[in-house]
């Protein structure tokens, strides 16, 4: 397998090429635009052991994550590299990231007919049910495809894609080869240019993705080529949008599905409407055995080829996000309904500036399975029916009200009711909770803007439950003296813990400075253990106590 820590000649060439290009006078600047841009981020933490909150002793004392991107553009050509360094990787991330090196490099050429990329590729077919590669540094998630991609637009309204390569796996690549083709047709643009101005637009598409991995299991006959295929459609008319996608996966025995030979399938439907002062969103999905990796023995978030979007709200406030939801790749059925509206200005409840209201309900449940085994117990077979639903995994109902009272004062208030199943939690965190969790959550967020660019913000939250660790209360005061600085103090208090000595305060103080495209923040205090999610993809965050610093810069 290729190791990016040692094989960096191609990336070095790209970097030198991009820097030397500024000295080239073969073409004037008026003919083609030269640009170099990028960004850097450094996160580091000094750890103190704390037995009460479960913060372990860290032998290195300090751990850090860092990366930098450099991108070069010249006319139709672009290239870039990313260097990452984990010395050693911070707690809560996979320790296999230990090390440093150039892990991402690409070169791309685009014209009217062809768009060719060699190197690391980020792309998505449709909604991602069959193929999606992306990078999320907050999760240390990177499943980029190291290979070749060609995009062609042979005529207006038709886009064709083809790609092949291996996925990133820490500082090397995975075992399997990923291959895919995708086609999308904009009906309005294809049939007649005059139809492009019609209010109703129809876009259809289809994809075929396959992976190849050698069969090296002495017990089972494993398919070496596993394909997925499916189609999608989008209908857009003004503020109305309806989209749907279906994907079918051939039998793919893997660690995730206990080496089952059952096929997989996924259906995702979303419809929305938006007009001035009002919008709604309805989403529904059904997923059955849709774990799809380029290595059948990979686990957690490693080497996933596809993406299964969540149909639950990704909260930003601490307490509503305490028990986050992660998509269950082996099977689930669920949906979300959301309505947003604004009470008009001048009305009794709208007041001078109007009042914004969001009402949301989401739900996820297991599939109801009929299981049976053949003579080899390792082969786990089951069947499902579209009209049958299993146990509830999760539900979330909340009402969010945001109101500007006058030029200085505004507030947000939220009530949230959640249910969380312990089986789902065990799959996310690999820990067993004491039972299903029912919680009621309240949030009040008040901002006082005492002059231009200066504000005080007070936030208080409460989570009330008789399960798990019991009730929580949080309070935060944030001061923004000007557009550059912020100071904040936070306390999370687990006052309802059934174990008296664990009724702890988690104090955290933080400060930050922002100037132009640069930001520095420092924090000191305690962080509770929990689960951190982005877009339905989650990681377990251990408890910690110490000093943390984060530096980001963009140029």
How many helices? The count is 3
CATH class of the domain at 313-364 and 392-555: Mainly Beta
**Strands, total number:** 29
pLDDT averaged residue by residue? 87
Strand content bin:
over 45%
As for the CATH topology of the domain at 313-364 and 392-555, it is Porin
CATH architecture of the domain at 313-364 and 392-555: Beta Barrel
Give a brief rundown of this model:
By secondary structure, this protein is mostly beta strands. The chain has a domain at 313-364 and 392-555: Beta Barrel (Porin), CATH 2.40.160. Helix content is 5%, strand content 55%.
Task: Indicate the topology.
Elements: H1 9-20, E1 34-47, E2 62-74, E3 77-86, E4 99-110, E5 114-121, E6 135-136, E7 141-142, E8 145-152, E9 158-169, E10 172-173, E11 177-186, H2 187-191, E12 200-212, E13 225-237, E14 240-249, E15 264-275, E16 278-288, E17 331-343, E18 355-373, E19 380-404, E20 409-420, H3 422-429, E21 437-451, E22 454-464, E23 472-480, E24 485-493, E25 505-515, E26 518-527, E27 530-534, E28 537-541, E29 544-554
Antiparallel strand pairs: 1-2, 1-29, 2-3, 3-4, 4-5, 5-8, 6-7, 8-9, 9-10, 9-11, 11-12, 12-13, 13-14, 14-15, 15-16, 16-17, 17-18, 18-19, 19-20, 20-21, 21-22, 22-23, 23-24, 24-25, 25-26, 26-29, 27-28
